[in-house]
Specification:
The structure holds 2 protein chains of 2 kinds. Chain A is an alpha/beta fold. Chain A contains 9 helices and 9 strands. Chain A has one domain: P-loop containing nucleotide triphosphate hydrolases (Rossmann fold). Chain B has 12 helices and 17 strands.
Chain lengths: 232, 419
Amino acid sequence: MGGSAIRIADLVFRWPRQPRPCLDIARLHIAAGEHLFLHGPSGSGKSTLLGLLGGVALPERGSLEVLGLEMTKLSSRARDRLRADSIGFLFQQFNLLPWLPAIDNVLLPCTFSARRRQRAGNPREEAERLLTHLDLSPNLWRQPAAELSVGQQQRVAAARALIGKPEILIADEPTSALDAPRQQIFVDLLLREATEAGAALLFVSHDERLAAHFGRKLALHDINSVAAAEPA
Amino acid sequence: MKAILGLALQSAWARRLTLGITLCAIALSSALLLAVEHVRSDARQSFTQSVSGVDLIVGARTGSVQLMLYAVFHSGNATNNLGWESFETLSAHPAVAWAVPLSLGDSHHGFPVLGTSPTYFEHFRYGDQQPLAFATGKAFTAVFEAVLGSTVAAELNYAVGDKITLSHGMAELGPEHADKPFTVVGVLAPTGTPVDRTVHVSLAAITALHLDWAGGAPLPGLVIPAEQVKKFELQPKEITALLIGLKSRSDVFRLQRYINGYKGEPLLAVMPGVALDELWQTLGMVERTLLALSALVVMVGLAGLMATLLASLNERRRELAILRALGAGPGEIFLMLTLEGLLVTTLGVLLGCALLAAGIFFGAPLLQSQFGIILPWRLFAPNEIILLLSILATGLLASLVPGWRAWRMSLADGLTPRN
């Protein structure tokens, strides 16, 4: 492989009707398969950055490439497609459709993306494999997501992000709802699975202690010249 | 897109309680609206079908609608009768082809009894100039013989040869004329008009029944057995109304003027069509008000739908963000909400149609017995289909609002809902 997962150059983003930009990033490069820890407290513009990477917002200026595709040149449909096909998202909490059984939540990306369905081989078997890997006992698979504990829900969400081998995994504070001993376990689990899937992992968190096992660490306020100037 | 539709259905199912209540509100309100329109058009239809071929209806002076209601539909009561001499004079009028006397006031198990002459069966027309036909038997000839309408025979399980007794007045448990039983000699074929619910006897029978009566009760100490009534004069002194057919229809206004100015006693002659028009004018206002009210109720139901969907948006904000993260575009989110609203409206309207069908099934006999309105089973009339489509269109409009809100929300939230 050896290509690039995400490449940002001279990117500026401003919310509508705001006088000043909220993101101004000169350079950010994440290689394919690379694991990057991005330190960002809330209010540092990280949700905005994730929105840009997911293609639900567009930069005002500059270049944003995802898997070699220039986002500013893609239609919103094509960006939705790219997100469905190639990016697995994992959020803080409430990642799941509460009324849907755990295993069907895992299978969601395969209903939205033919590509991920194909890459999963037999989606149901793959979902079961991932859930087993993530230590979710089979008697919970058919339970509605709302009936699982937060920790179990996060593992289901991880399986959902991983299914169909997306090239990029984006995790936004996925451990903040877990208690301290389980946080590191979850991060290691995620790193292991990302490695196995060959996916680039962008892990965003305010908690620097979790960065230990990452190959590379960055702080958002170091690369975002707006956040540096702003009081926290 | 297919992925999101399946999810939309599952999501709606997860909220089935609130959506179900909204659906019921839409079903009830559309059933109400359809019922008002249905009964309205069928009432018109059945009233218009009830009499044809009669040029004038004559009675003692009263309101023309009232005269028509009791003479043709046997509902309500005549305040006054008219004298037999007037009947004889009018039947002898050179413009008159035929005149049939009508005498009302008695009943049999709640069905009105009509005293008339055998010529009634020749001259009466309903629907599109259709004459009355006998399913079995024949017209009455003797005093204590009766001809039943098809519904009377069917509901009370009577056949030619059975004996029946009549009650005085319209109350189902009124005093009985038990001493003078009648023999059923004929049963009429169904007409879909008030004739079906009528017991027909001769005028002489009405007189005979009341020989030993005065003021609505049997005269104490006076009993005249059935065998002896023939010794009495059975020519009635009074009748309730009469139907007139003309030799030439062009005489109708001339004769109407003559009757309305009749010297012998105050009389009223009405043309059935004109009286019906008058009735519609009186009812039209009520009908329109009812229709407008039920349309308003439908609006309330659909406003409820809009409120339910809008309220659900707040609790589904995360759900929408998850769908976005999975690759759904804002357009698909918009469609999902709009289709959910349209689905609830459509199911509601379908349930409303089922309710209406059940209502007609169970309510039609009551409506027919109480008001003489016949509700036949039929497909939807064009204006009812227009009503149905308008409900669906309004439901669609009401669903566009939450759809638009969800679209805005998913654009503003991106992948991380703000709460």
